[in-house]
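Question thread 4412

I'm putting together a teaching handout and wanted feedback from people who do this every day. The idea is simple: show students a protein as raw sequence, then show them the structure tokens that encode its fold, then repeat with a second protein so they can compare. Below is the first pair exactly as I plan to print it.
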Amino acid sequence: MSSNHSTGATNSRFAKPKSARSAATRAVDRLEKAPTGITGLDEVTLGGLPRGRATLICGSAGCGKTMLAVEFLVNGVREYGEPGVFVAFEETRDELVVNAASLDFDLGKLVREGKLAIDHVHIDPNEISETGDYDLEGLFIRLKYAIESVGAKRVVLDTIETLFSGFSNTALLRAEIRRLFQFLKSFGVTAIVTGERGENSLTRYGLEEYVADCVILLDHRVMDQITTRRMRIVKYRGSSHGTNEYPFIIDEQGFSVLPVTSMALRHKVSSEVISSGVPDLDAMLGVGGYYRGSTVLLSGTAGMGKSSFAAALARAACERGERVLFFAFEESEQQIVRNMRSVGINLQPHLDSGRLRIIAQRPFLYGLEMHLVSMHKEVGRFRPAVVVVDPISNLISAGTPREVTAMLTLLIDFLKTEGITGFFTVLTENSGLLETSDVGISSLIDTWMMVRDIEVSGERNRGLYVLKSRGMNHSNQIREFLLSAKGIRLVEVYLGPSGMLTGSARVALEEHERDASARQTDENDLKLAQLEHRRKAMEAHIEALRAEFEADAAGVKKAVSLENKREKKVIENQAAMARSRRANGHLSQTPNRK
């Protein structure tokens, strides 16, 4: 990006101040980029490879240089309408087509459609003798023809060492390599040149890396019998870029890079609450479950039921019609289904419906980076609402604790950014230090619960408590829980003289309380019966008094009635006598008047 300037002083009358530059002018000065369409790579390069320039992809054998170059061309045709040219110096056209088919790339079809040209240039070092000036004019002619035949915008040369094998003149090599890169630039094509890594330099000759505008180093390393693939952008002229090492994988879907530096604290936050699948646990959490998009850690010793709580959450989410992605590192899919059925959790219907997907594999099958990238790809493909990892402590076998912590931190950040609820289980040693995490991510967790064994009277019973749960007023009790054919049930806390009672001691206390309650019930029934007897006796006595009263009342009423009749008779007799006297007196006085 250099420009020619005349020497000498500049006339200040015609010089524009920097502030007068328009935004459009600054935009023209920016380096244009050609997107690769490769997951993560465009993010790391902040847009893709430099358009119209050459990029060197270097690395040891088997690190994925050719596959990256092939995908760059295929994506150019499929996604951006840019035809391409692939010039191979090692593989034949047929070999390249067969190898690319493993990534579901049909190069033969693209060739037949006139969107891709493949040219195999056979060079045998044993047939080369360095007798005079060596130049690439023949290659330039073939390249020019291939580019013009399909109107190519993208070109790949694989690999450059083969082109210069058998020549030792460093000055000549440097000049021809520079001419090759300038030739590609003159056509305005975006080119990838692959090269084998040297012992003390990025490439075998150590020349290409200085000529190329962009250099990407691929690494395929083996540590403790575990392979990992990593990528690093060594340089990128005219553009800023990610500078870290980034894990990548090559699978049936192609080349995928995990852009570590893109993980920032831009998490989605939701106030929606989802059930844990255990109603008693929902009540302990205060708000009725977990916040959607939060991260839950359940730690504890072996055999305490951690996987059962994970399965309960998975079942509850599936019953809501959501998708669940379950990464298992200890049990196979069918083993998980069988074992969870014994505690009343049937996962098979959700597997059949496609809402639940279980990915079971040993943690040491891949390196940590590949585990991380594969999890990213599975989440992107399945789009789950809940992700379960059971247990994360097993990943220690695939790396050091520090590497596991870094990997899980990236996974947690990714899930939070996507608004996915994450549920992790971790195995802790039974050494008394239960409130620690072997993978050191407890500070990143939103809800941290612990299951532990409680030894009372020679028994080991299961207990659960919530160590922390951000944003909710959770219970601080240790609750015993039972695993039965009816599911997970948390029982009420029973306190005895020596503290919390569990197991048979709790059962004995419950039996004692039931007996005491029964005795109290019997006593209450007896008291009520006695009271009823007294009531009936009282009512009988009242009835007798009422009958006696009524009998007395009847006698009195009868006596009164008789007395009234007697008095009436006396009055009547007196009246009769009075009438009789008046009548007699009248008769005796009448003759005297005559």
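The second pair follows. I'd like the answer to focus on this one:
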Amino acid sequence: MSFFSDTDSPTNLTEYSVSDLSGSIKRTIEQAFDQVRVRGEISGYRGQHSSGHAYFSLKDDKARIDAVIWKGSFSRLRFKPEEGMEVIATGKITTFPGSSKYQIVIEALEPAGAGALMALLEERRRKLAAEGLFDTERKKPLPFLPKVIGVVTSPTGAVIRDILHRIADRFPVHVVVWPVKVQGEGSGQEVAAAIEGFNTLDPLGPIQIPDVLIVARGGGSLEDLWSFNDEIVVRAAAASKIPLISAVGHETDWTLIDHAADRRAPTPTGAAEMAVPVKADLDAEIASLAARLRGATARQMDNRRQGVRALARALPSLDQLLALPRRRFDEAAAGLGRGLQMNTVNKRRAFERTAAHLRPDMLLTRIAERRQRVADRVLRAERIVERRLDQLRARLSAFDVSLRATPARIKTQTERSRDRLKGLALRAESALSGDLSRRRALVQAQDRVLQSLSYRNVLKRGYALVRDEDGVPVKGAAALGPGRAIAIEFADGSVEAVTGAGTNPGGSTPPRKKPAKPEAEAANPAPRQGSLF
């Protein structure tokens, strides 16, 4: 604040407040440098702030300027800032009045020339190669005859038509296209999401999982193909469980996804040729193999037939094979009659020798021997029966003695069992009495706890419990309006009442005038109620 008036000012200069001067400088700079392009090296970049903005500096060998990229502009950047990168930033110059600093608000960012892009590309390639993403050992072989082919490309370009046409010409199979942007902001994220999406398809879902993937794009400049150099795309290609063919650009164009893919095709058409064989060539090869198989089978049969004929010529004739057995049969047939005659003579001689020993006295002697043997066995059986009867009589006598002694034994056992039962009954009664005493003490302890926690003890101290017409306890005056039926429960009973219009739920209830106490009560005032706590 100035202590001089305009008329007392020693000069004709206009006075400004600090805020006015800062605002004027801010407007002047923003009008003069509304749109500028600044070339410099990124310094002090630490990634996005938690707010989503990015703060760093641009510098050269002589000066430095603060820079900021707001959250909305950062998400639209084609190239993300990196520490030490030489870039060309497009934006406007503004000031920060709070600290008298100026900065550039960047709206677009690009590397400073193709040389910078190539240097950035080479640095990123070395970083990913060091992680093993480009190793040959991790590359998967392509299936010989895939049933489903997944294609990640733009649905409107000529690339997809070339791929479909080439596949239809060579070997028609089912093709699933995942449409993505192949150039511009967000194209890298879409390509990576498409690769991951194909790998996470449900095997039982409506879309079949492809046997091979093709990531394709037509030719272009280094900037046009930059999306396929994004780290997120390279990592998605390296992590793909499905064999992946990279077909980005022309034959001379190389991107980082070409190193991470399982196979690189020089063109999208070449990728289609790698994915499927030529059906006509396969048919011709199968026909050639079938003809060779038929020829080999015919030649083998001819060779086997000639071998059988050679073996047949070496075998003897049927007459030669049967001559010896036929002679043996004839000799056996000639000697059969003589053999029968000799067998009959031998049998007759044996019968006569046996008949000479068959006399009546020998038969009588043998019958007497057998009769004596039978009598001896009868005597032995009678003696055995008598011994068995004696044994049975002895066992019956023993059983009779045991049965006579049984009543006394049973009586003794009964008395012992009765004494034992009495002892067990006394023990059970004592145990039951002790258990009942313990349980009665436990129940009494629980009852004392319940009594101490019961709200009725609080009512005995002079408090009251208010319930609404449904019997639900009321916790505050705001829950009741005028004219509501309530029940007030005291320690010795409950009364019914109706709320009036004097309740004030939002504030305190106005004090009511206390009625005059009787002289007896004034003379003997009741003791004051103690605190609930």
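Top answer:
Good format. For the second protein you could add a caption like this: Confidence is low (pLDDT under 50) at residues 1-6, 505-509, 511-524, 529-533. The two ends are 62 Å apart (CA to CA).
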